[in-house]
Amino acid sequence: IRAGWLDKNPPQGSYIYQKRWVKLDTDYLRYFDSEKDAYSKRLIPVSSISRVTSVGDQKFEVITNNRNFVFRAESDADRNEWIRTLQQIAEERKSKAPERTSMSLATDSATEPADKSGFLELRGFKHKLFVVVAGDKVFLYKNAEDYRLGIGITYIEMNVGNVKEVDRRGFDLTTPYRIFSFSADSEQEKEEWVEAMQQSIIEALSSSEVAERIWAVESNRSCADCGSPKPDWASINLCVVICKRCAGEHRGLGPGITKVRSLKMDRKVWTEELIKLFQQFGNAMANEFWAANVPPSEAIGPTSGSQERRRFLIAKYREGKYRHYHPLFGNQEELDRALCVAVTTSDLKETQALLFCGASVTCDTGDSECPTPLALAERSGQRLQMEFLLHNKTSELRGLPSALLCRAEFSRRWCTLQDGVLSYYENDRNTVPNGEIRVEEIVCLVNNPPHTHGIESTFEVYTGAERLYLFGLESPDSAREWLKSIAKSFVHPCAEELLVLDFERFGRLHYKGGLTLERAQEGWFVLVGSTLHVCSEDGQRQEPLQLRKLQELCAWPAFLGVVDTQWGLGGAWPPAEASCAGRTLYIQGERKLDFLGWVHAIQKAAGSSGDTLSEQQLTESDVPLLVDRCIDYITQCGLTSEGIYRKSGQNSKTTSLLEVLQRDARRVRLKEGEHHVDDVANTLKRFFRDLGDGLFTQQWAPDWLWATALEDEEAKVSEYRQLLGALPAVNRATLKALINHLFRVQCFSGENQMNTHNLAIVFGPTLFQTDGKDYKAGRVVEDLINHYVEIFNVNDQEMKKQQDEIMAIMKMREASSSGMQQAGDFICTVYLEEKKTETEQHVKIPATMTAEELTFEILDRRKIVMKEKDYWSCFEVNEREEAERPLHYSEKVL
Ligand SMILES: [Zn+2]
């Protein structure tokens, strides 16, 4: 940038200025004895220059953090020009790395990160020099202190170097300009130096073509992890460009997490596609994900030590501690599905987020032509997506962080819980703990299922600072004991009664519910099986939430909406005073880590967990939602369909419908036109046929069959009633719902040709899971339908209500067949203000009808004129009137 003769101020004790040839480039200010010299007498890194000022006639001073250098120019003009150029260069350097200048004051970033450093004798010098091999250069310093300050003698560019061993301790570094004869302290030392310098030559000679292209992107010009300039290494699966020192630590994480390659030496891996991927992706996009939340106290810089670096990289890439969580985090199926979509677009950022939040590279796409995401990307012509997937094919999954510790990583610690501090020690004799968790910081405790982490019992402790600690124990009992003790030490006294529960998950969360929708309150949440217990901060224990009976469960990135017949979901609609007290629950995601764990756990607990009746999602009246959905649909659309339940429907449609219903019946809406009644009927039969333990249970089924032999009709009915009482509640409720349904179906045998006997032939073997060779099973069903009212204690009121409903349905069907109706209409009973026969209206509700339209329709029918300040709204009320929820005016009623 600038070179010229200057007088350098004399060393101490001398008055004679020395004439020096001074050279400035972007990195260093150096001075030489003459302009022909290749090696300087002094080098000052530009990055260490803090100020340049003029001092008296023609002189100027270069001020570094620790030392000042005075030069004298030939004229004021020359002097001013030097000052101007130096200031500009130093300024530019600062602005390029603003976050590091502040750090450099403290830790001298001027120092080159060393591959090898130490003292060597150099012929021609009285004292040993401090020699540093760094990248493609060898630096000479007067002493270690100068190295720390960054003020060196000279550097040797190794692209012109050659190393030769001379004797036991000596070796020569030969360059075209000079031979440096070094001598080490020992033979072994010498060998290490020779090796390091040879490595440096290789690096200097390697091609920088790839590096130059990748550096063309601004963010790739400094290390993605520590910010060092000109990083010439990369992790090809994480798509980050990193410095040599970080690369060394990356290697320690293992290739399952990061695949380290040199930009300059590993020429073969750098295909055109991979270079393009790095140009598009680059450090900026990678860090938007991986370093979204790095606390300043944990960040590293170019001078960070090896341990610090390692700790940071483990947290960043292995634990994913600072990452930007994808909203679907924790939901494997959804993640995989989203990945299959993302790879067909150019959205690499989305793919990155999905992949490193747990989506599986090898997930099943459900597309037989393109069974893997890679094949999908190929079909869509997304070359960069393919490249990205390819390099991450063998990467370890990064799902829930808790899954990241494996057995080998457990180390034995002595733990104590005392005075509100959970401490862990190297052993029971140590007095200084390795770490401490203050119990008031704990926000969640999780008791993992056995063998989750390769050891018998593990539990997790989450803190408010988004940290997760995993503890392992030999027995489930001791794990439970620890959990209870820890929970007891931090739970609010008002919620202490929750501690008697054998919980899987215990913690505090913010939620809104009931009358306090405006204000979130803190509550204590306990998950036991599929039951969620909640205790508010003022000590009020809510009715436990049966998660399998939820009406709806909606997970958003920031909160989880739980709709229960008990709770009801609020939403955009305003909370209705008093009427919905305690029936609305939003769980808010204030912290990511434990909240996502809760969402995942609640979603899981709210789904069907097996193939027996009680493991299904249930309605309020204990009937599997799946059964309820099918019966409802047949009642609305299939009562008059000829051969209903006898005709078999399409096998493939039945299979897929049963599958989606079993996965999450809550989300399935059966619609006329979309689902054929025979397919739905067949689905219901298939469900009972495959049901674990059967509707009548293995234990009691023989007794039911035996009862058919009783000749006295009255004795038989009484036997059935007794057997009914012996069934588990869910089986009893389900059997009642089904027989009630079949009772209605046979009422229409004139149209559907399915009388009681025909239904019994179909349902007997299905419900008893027999081959149907004898009629015993059919007999039971026939008897149950015939004696429906007595066996199930159905009263007149219930019968009348059902008949009215059926009448309404029939009326609607008639109208429908005359072409006046839209497919998909349902008949609903709507009450005005109170549930009384006089206020009852049967309304046909099209799929598109909103709550507002329904409200107006009812008001219109009742000839109610809206007055000013009248507010009407539509509520959904469950059968037993225990719960209701207001509908938003624009919400669809169905
Ligand atoms: Zn680095």
TrEMBL record:
Intracellular or extracellular location(s): Cytoplasm
Domain Ras-associating, chain residue ranges per copy: 824-894
Entry keyword DNA-binding: no
Subcellular location, principal: cytoplasm
Pfam families: ArfGap, PH, RA, RhoGAP
Domain Arf-GAP: 199-333
Keywords attached to this entry: Cytoplasm, GTPase activation, Metal-binding, Phosphoprotein, Repeat, Zinc, Zinc-finger
Record InterPro entries: Arf-Rho-GAP_ANK-PH_domain, ARFGAP/RecO, ArfGAP_dom, ArfGAP_dom_sf, PH-like_dom_sf, PH_domain, RA_dom, Rho_GTPase_activation_prot
Domain Rho-GAP positions: 611-792
GO molecular function: GTPase activator activity; phosphatidylinositol-3,4,5-trisphosphate binding; zinc ion binding
Cellular component terms (Gene Ontology): plasma membrane; trans-Golgi network
All copies of domain PH, residue ranges: 1-91, 113-202, 383-491
SMART domains hit by this protein: ArfGap (SM00105), PH (SM00233), RhoGAP (SM00324)
GO biological process per UniProt: regulation of cell shape; signal transduction
Protein name: ARAP1 protein
Gene source species: Cephalopterus ornatus (Amazonian umbrellabird)
Organism ancestry: Eukaryota, Metazoa, Chordata, Craniata, Vertebrata
Gene it is expressed from: Arap1
